[in-house]
Each structure stands twice: as C-alpha cells, then as structure tokens.
Amino acid sequence: MAVTFIGVRHHSPACARLVRRTIETLRPAYVLVEGPADVNDRLDELLLGHQLPIAIFSHYRDDERAHLSWAPFCAYSPEWVALTVGRAHGAKLRFIDLPAWHPALAGRRNRYADAEQRYADAADRLCRAFAVDNVDALWDRLVEVEPDDGLEERLATYFDLVRGETETGEDDTAREAYMAAWVRAAAADAGDRPVVVVTGGFHRPALRRLVAEPGSVVPEITNVRAVPVEVTSGLHRPAPRTGTEEPAGPLEVTDRSQAPGASPVADAGDGPVEVGGGLHPGGDGPEAARADVGADPAGAAARLPRSAASPLVAASSGWPEIPRPAAGAVGGSYLVPYSFRRLDAFSGYQSGMPSPEYYQRLWEQGADAAADGLVEAVATRLRGRGVAVSTADLIAARTLSAGLARLRGHPHPARTDILDGLVSALVSDDLDQPLPWTRRGALEPGAHPVVAEMVAALSGDRTGRLHPDTPAPPLVHDVDAELARLGLDRTGTVELDLSDAGDLVRARALHRLRVLRVPGYRRVSGPVSGADPVLDERWELTDDEERTAALIEAGAYGGTLRDAATAVLAEGVAAAGTKPDGLAAVLFDAALCGVTDLSEQITELIAANIAGARELGPLGDALATVLALWRHDRVLGTAGSPMYAAVIDGAVTRVLWLAEGVHGGPAPADPARLRAVTATRDALLHAHEVLSTGREAALDVMARIGADREAPPDLRGAAFGFGWSLGASADPVRALRGAAGADTLGDWLAGLFALARDEVLADGGSAGGGVLAVLDDLVTTMPDFLAGLPALRQAFAYFPPRERELIARRLLERRRLTGSARALLRTTADPLLIAEARALEERTSRLLAGEGLLP
Amino acid sequence: MTTEETFQRPPAEIRYADELARLGEDDRGGRPPGWALSLETARAFIVGDERRGIRRKFVGDPSLIDRALVSLATSRGLLLVGEPGTAKSLLSELIAAAVSGTSTLTIQGGAATTEDQIKYSWNYALLVSEGPSPRSLVPAPLLKGMAEGKIVRFEEITRCPLEVQDSLLSPLSERVLAIPELNGTDGMVFARQGFNVIATANTRDRGVNDMSAALKRRFNFETVFPIADFATELDLVEAEARALLEASGVTVPPRRDVLEVLVATFRELRAGTNADGGPADRLSTVMSTAETVSVAHAVGLRGWFLRGEPGTAADIVACLAGTAAKDNADDLARLRRYLEQQVPRRRGDQWRALHDARHLLPG
C-alpha cells in the first residue's frame, strides 16, 4: 500500500503530464481526484466522450443563500487526465472533495481557482525573489517551460512555499479533513496496490500530514521520520539556467518554512519511504476518521452543517459519508458545455490559469509549436482587422521573444516571452492601461487594439459539446414542468392580464424564457417601460426545433428557470457597462421576470456602472425609470426593492457629479438633462431614505451650478428651480433678473419651469413683484425679443394649457384689462396653415438629414 | 575627480559605483557586444537583488525592465512613454549606467533643440583658422555615443520639432552618421557595438502621435505606469517625504495615517476610480507619485512651521488646491466634488477631517 500525492495547479498542462506519467507507471487501484464527491455515482456520465471544455455545474438554494458554481474541465486539466487515464488503466475513480453546495465552498464560483490567491503573501514574496510580475509568469517559469524531469520536486517545493506557515482558512481545513478521510479509506481498501491522489498543490502538504498521522493535531507534527506514506519529494530548487542570474529569494523563503519541526518533508529522504500495510487495517477507518474530525480546529467542525457534522465515515464501509444538503434546500450538479472564453473570464479570487487556447496548444503540440501558433494566430487576427503587421515586425517579435526567454532563463519561449516580444514589436503607441498579463486582471474597455487581439487569441473560442447520451440538465425538466403547471405547454397566442396573480406568474415564466433567448416565445405587446400603464401582455408561442438545444445550453446558468434567468440578467448588467440606458433595460427585464433580488455583487456592479456613466440625459432617464419602478410598481412587485434603491442612490450621486461638470455658456435648452435634474429632485423628495448623498450636499451642488457663469443657462435655471422646489431659501426675482438677456432668458426659464412650475405659479399669486410680474417686465422691455422668442416658447411649453391660461389671466389682471384669458392662448392663424407649415418643416428636416446636413 | 558629496545630484554611475563594480566582477553571463554588463546582471542592478545587497532602484513591473533591456540589445532603440512623474528619466539613467557605465550622454529635448546639440558642432575659432578637421569638430552626445559604443539618452524627444527628431533616423537604422564637411574616412562615423538610444516622452505634452512613422518604427515603445500597488507607493512617499522634511529642518516625521489619506486621494484622482474601484472623474492635472511627495512635503512644512506638529488632513486640502487644481477651474470643481461626494464614503478619522476641511478649497 502506498499513497502518491500529486499536488497540481488546476489547468496546468505540465501537471497533467505528470499525472498521466504517474498513473501509467504505478497502475494504481484508486485514482482520487479533487472534485465534488456527490458526483461519484455519475462518473460514467462524465466520461461519455464529450467534446471539451465542459463543466460540472452545481446550484444550491436554501433559506439563507443561493450559490452557483462550476468545476470546469479542459483536455489539459490534470483532474481530467487523472479521470481518463485512470479509467483507461482500470483504476477505480473517486472525487474526494466536499460537494459544491457545502458551506466550506460558499463564495467559490470556480472550484478550480488558484488557492494561492487566497494566501497571496507567500506568492508575492516568491515573485519578488524571482523578479517576475505575477504568479502566472512565475508558474510558467518554474513549471510549464521547464523539462519534465524533477517536476514533482519543483511542484512540491513551490506549494510548500506558497502554503508556508500561513494560517489556513477554516474552509480549507474542513475540505482537507474530508479529503484525507477519503484517502485513508481508499488506502485501506486498496491493500497492497498503490493509490494516486490528485489535488490542488496547496492542499498536498496538509493532506499528507493528515493521512500520515490521523490522530494528531493537524499542524503539530514533529516526528518527521514516521511519515508512513510514500514521500517522493525532496526540497530541490529548480536548477538555475545560468550561473549569474541565480535567483536569490526562494532559498531564504525555503529556509524560513523549514524551521525545525515545521515541515514534515524537511528530512524525509530522497526516495520513496515505503511503509508496509498494517497501519491502516480496514477496521481502523471509522475511528481514525472520527478522531480526525475531533482533532480538527473547532471552527472547521462548527462550519459543517448539521447533516454533515455527523461522523464523516460510514461505519460499515469505511468510506466517508457524502454530506447531504439539509431538508428544504434545493441543489444539484450536472454537466454543461463550457467555453474557453468563460474559463478565461473568472477574475480575482476565482481566477485560475489564464489563456486556455495557449495552454491547449502547449498540451497538444509542445512549447515551441504553441509559441509559433500563438504568433501566427495573433498576426492573422490583426491582419484580419486591417492592422499592418509586416514581416519585419514578426522577425523583430521573434528576436525579442528569444532574447527575453534567454534573459529569463527559459529553455523555450514562455507565454509572457511571446506576449512581451509581440507587444514590443507591434505596439508603436503609448498604452492607456498596463498590459493585462502583467497585472493578472481582465482587459478594461479602451485597450489598445493590438493588445486586445493578443488577449483574445490566447483566450481562444473553443466551446464544448456534451455527448448526446448525457442526461439533460435539470433546467430542461424544470421548464417543462413549470410550463405544464402554468398551462403554457402549447402553441398559439396567449393573452395575459398582469394584474391577475396567476397571469403574472405566467408572464414571468415567459419573460424568463425570453431573457434566456430560448426560441419560440415572442411577446407581441405589453408594457415597454416602468412608467407604461399597460397591464396586458400578448405572447406568441411557437414550436421551435432549436428550443431544446437552447435550453440545454441555458442549463449552464442554473438548474431552475428562475436561477438561470437571474444569472443571465446578472450577465446583462455586466455587459451593459456604463451605459445607463442598457442598464435600465436590464433592470426593467428583471422587473418583468420578477427577479428583483439579484445578488449583492450584482447590485455593487450596477452601482459601479452607474458611477461610470458619462451622459447626463440617459442617466436621468434611467433614474426616472427606476425611481418609478421603486416607488409605484406594485404590479411587477418592484416597489421598495433594495436593488432598485441602490441604483437610485448611485444615479443621484452621479447626476450631481456630472451636472456640475457641464460647461459651455449659452446653448439651447436640453430637455434630457433637465429631466435628469427633475428625476434627481424627485428622488430626493420621495426616496431620501435610500440616498447616501444628502439633501444638503445636493443643494450645495445646485447652488454652485446656479451661480456658475460657465454653466449653460437651462442648467442654471434648473439648478435654481431645484433649490426653490426643495424649499431652500432663494430670491427668485433676483435670480431671474440675473438671467435676463435675449440669448439666455428663455433657456434659463426652461430649466426653472421644468423643476419649479408650481412654485412659479404660487409666487406669481402673491402681491407685488412676483416672478411673473418681473418676467412680464423683462419680456416687455427685451431689446431683441424675436431672437429670444423660440426659447421662451419652449420654456412655456412646460406649462399645461390650463396653467398657461392662469398665467394669461394674471397678465390681463396686471394690465387691468378684461377679456378671455383663453382667447389669448388661441392662435389666430388658420390651423390648416399651421399643419402645412409643420409638414413642410418636417420634410425639410428629413431632406437635410438625408443629405447629412443635419444630425 | 570631485567627490560625490559636492555634487547636488551625482549621476547613477557615481551614486551606485560600488554596486556596479561588484556586479561587474561577479558577472559571468554572456554580454552583448559593447555592453558593460550582461543582461541578467543589468536587470539585477535595476530591480535589485537582496541576496547580493543590490538595492531595488525602480519600482515597477520587472517584465518592463526585461523588455527594455532586450530591446536595447536588438537593433531598435527604446522609447519610454508615460505620464509625467513616472520615473522614466530615472529608469533611462539607470539602464544607461548599467549598460554603458555612463548615463551622461544626454540630449535634453525642447522646442529650441537643434541638430547641433544632437550630432556635432564646430569650434569656430579652429574652423576659421584650420578649416573643417577632426580637431575643430565638437562632438555632441549622439556622435560621442556612436563613436564610443555607448547608450545615448534623449529626454523628452517629442518636445523637439519633428525635423530635429528625424535626424535620428539614419543613426538608428544605418548606424552611421555622415559629417559631410570632413573628407575621407573621417566623414563617416560608424556606430560601434554598444551604441543605442533611449528616448523618453511624456503623454501630456505633444504625445507620440506626431512622431513620424519612420522614426516610430525604429523604436520599441514601453509605457511606464504609475505604481500599481498602494502599499508600495505609500512606503515610497513616506520615505521620500521624510527625507525632504529632514532636509528642510522639520524634526517630526509625517503621520502615516495622514499620508495614507493623501496617497489614496492622489491615486483615486489619478486613476479616475473611487474607493470601491468604480469609475469616477480623473483630474487632467498630473497626479504622479512625485507630486504626491511634494504635497506630503508641503503638508509637513505647513504643520511644523505654522503649528509645530506633523501636518493634518486639513493641510492636505490647502496644499491640494495648489498642486492638483493649479489654474484649471475644471479640476478645482472635480476636486471639490471628490471631497464632497467620494470622501464621506470612506471610514476613518483622517478621512472625516479631510471632508470637514473641504471648505478650504478656494472659490
């Protein structure tokens, strides 16, 4: 009996090769792989012969939380190779990690993310010592481009260093305890035959300790010689390539991690220390495992849910029990097709190895061919985009890559060597953002086109496809059941009344299918915005042969219609970026789908997107839409929703920010930005409890705009009206006199009337020189009345006819005239003539626009 | 030779003479022809090597140094681009010192730079008495660098008129400089191994867009970015500000929590992101680390000489108006909005003090 632990980095071709070699050499009885143990009874499904990449998708929902996660596999994943090669050599396969729904994995969207992201200090030290930018470059340097001999030792050293002395989080401790229980059970069951364990390298040191000394307290192992497992790693640093650039730091770091007794590997000899069976007689299993759980730091055990906190090992078989979710929770795991683009899109704590297309080539063809392929792919893409890539450039890129590889001590050009060489040779501009491969981050909008194409070429666009015999994901069944329950499993026209509870549920189901882009569900009519008073919807249902395929693909987003729609809407939020109109559309879709509790993460993203909006007009419209949904919409159930509240808060802050930045002297009034100021005022009036920018700050901003000579007159008028309508003390007459002037008065008034119509009318009623009286004087004495007339007309259009009549009556009173106020409002021209004039104007505009003379 | 102490700012090869000497002795790597150090050693000189006691002199991505050095070893020149105050000139000085052992073959670009200052001019007394001869020739940095096989630094290349910039074309591509006034072999100076050009350009002035495509092709572009890591920048600012304050006779060190607020403010206004990483407005003024240091210095001076204490968040606001806003009204408005709307979202006493001091902004 011997257990071989292979610590891998997920999605590393070099590790995959090591796994293949080891399994082929050892022919183990068991191959144990880090993966969700609750899928063990369905491993056959995983090995049906899919086209990679695919992923095990898991979803979970209980009263407290909802969680979606993926365990992606591609051809060069060590875990995938372990499964396929293990199966080919007759080994029994087991996933040994906790299920994806388990609290220890809460917050993990990518099961195969890099663990060192969570413990960044040691990785940072290593990077500095090797003078590389980040972990990816370090990994390529130590592992991917190096020859395979000695790989195991290098990996062990690397992960021991990364693990170092850092305190492991309780989540990782719980997972490691569980995995160790599986290893012990498999070792006991295998008897004399070897067992191969493939896990993330970060877990390897702990697993070995746990398996070796099941009864001891985890971190305190002092008797190094007693490690009863096969130890194949010594501490060897990778051989330096040249004498002079021998990197310094790691040795020191190594020394630190080898404080006496701290590491069980320190003196563990060179060869395998094979210890005969007997240490793990089958009967020991349960006790050992129980002892192990007992010895666990209390936190780890405490985090196990009640169902899982029972003894981890089933007494009868010796195999660990697979935790089951508590009653009432919904969850499941199933296979979904995946894509390189999604694999590359994980970021932050979820990220793993980048650039799947490059590593796919590395796995298939080797480092040199991968490098050539990469250069070719980038050149082809750039030429396709019309960017000139000359032969001289490619020669320069090749020379630089080779030079960089030599300087960095790589036997073959590594990923970063190629990228650095290409970027040096092809980019003849200054860049706006750091190169994405130096920062380990995603590309931001506005990246240099050459860099963007390079990143896209490395990411690749392969997509996976499931074998036809794969059971359909639960979404397909869920949708069928849901539609049958709602009586929508038919074709033809469906009329729905949204004020009816049953029909509302039906409408939501149909809208969810619509946002999932499942063909066959088309809405013919219905409300188109939050303020739309339409309460009827009309749908056209057809039988589409693509329907099932689309549902299977959509299955990657969630197990139920609601979950999947939520995930798609969340993606829509991300895609809308800083465009408020796009965002408002997604939020309205969310309201239609009845999904108003998008996760906190998404709410933050929305807030961030809003904070990046550049245009006042669209932002104001979005604010008005969302404010209406938040205040009134009891039909769609969005009234008072915290998600919409966050949008309102962010939009108000941003409108104030943007409004103060608008400059440029006299300009025609812009109704869109006036609407934005109005919406902001409404938010302050009706939603002040959700705003973080208070009334005072808003009034300060508006007071400054009102006094700013550089700001356009309509905005200044609106700013004044903003304060007036909120009851801030102000002298309207003085402000009005300040805005007098044929070129500004009308626009200023447009702003004022848009915001403070009521106040103007009320003020005009008071005795003496109210606003209307002053205005009357100003207009009467205006020297250039005709020039100012169009703007004045536009301004007074903010008053509805009845209020205009009121104004007219006051003017008559002021002049002590009698007569019909209404008659004053009537035009004396022939209506037909006006209609003709309007038609002529419209035709002219169309003509001018057609010739490109008007925007 | 004058000792180091009497220079206001000795060049890198004098400041780090002992490190260069030590590295040179131990250097076993292959050196590109004409180089004083191997690539690996030159890199260690710049990014530092704790084990050999070599200080880290440039805070930035190591891969940038890799690319820069490899570019210089090929037939293309190196053009460092970036915002002002990102240590481009320091980097070019360090590289020149490491590669050639001298960083003083420097052309300072400007509107008045002429070809004479780049290539060569004449000693007119000798020229009149003897006619053109190698004796009457006064070599400028480019000619010297070509003849001796050294790195020539060209600072702020985009500040020069385009025609003057283009005088680099044939030295960079043909690696030869013709002196038509001289006859025979003296009339052609062929570049020796080791010659290359490091130019710097900042993105604020005229930028690199005006450069001729022909010249662009002869350079590899490297963009130098502001320091990415908050802690690194804070440490750097603290160290530099402390040194400046000591030199100004201030005996109390700057307060770290005040510096934290200062550095965070500068970073957010520079990058145009708020505390949550969301986008916000960025200032059009230069908000480099160098400017941060000078504000930290000013804050310390105000605190000490006005009140006898280390300087507070209110001093930051007072100093920001002069540095960040300069004479730009838009920037002043952005700064005010930042103090009003973004700062209150942060937690901490100093942030609150910063918010409370917002009225100190002029206007």
Automatic annotation (TrEMBL), chain A:
Compositional bias segments (type: Gly residues): 274-285
Compositional bias per record (Low complexity), positions renumbered to this chain: 286-302
A Pfam cross-reference name: DUF5682
Region annotation Disordered: where it falls in the sequence: 232-302
Domain of life: Bacteria
InterPro entries reported for this sequence: DUF5682
Protein name as catalogued: Uncharacterized protein
Organism, scientific name: Actinoallomurus iriomotensis
Lineage: Bacteria, Bacillati, Actinomycetota, Actinomycetes, Streptosporangiales
UniProtKB/TrEMBL annotation, chain B:
Name listed for the protein in its UniProt record: AAA+ ATPase domain-containing protein
SMART domains in the record: AAA (SM00382)
Domain AAA+ ATPase intervals: 74-229
Superkingdom of the source species: Bacteria
GO molecular function, one term: ATP binding
Pfam families cross-referenced by the UniProt entry: AAA_5 (PF07728)
Annotated InterPro entries: AAA+_ATPase, ATPase_dyneun-rel_AAA, CbbQ/NirQ/NorQ/GpvN, P-loop_NTPase
Organism encoding this protein: Actinoallomurus iriomotensis
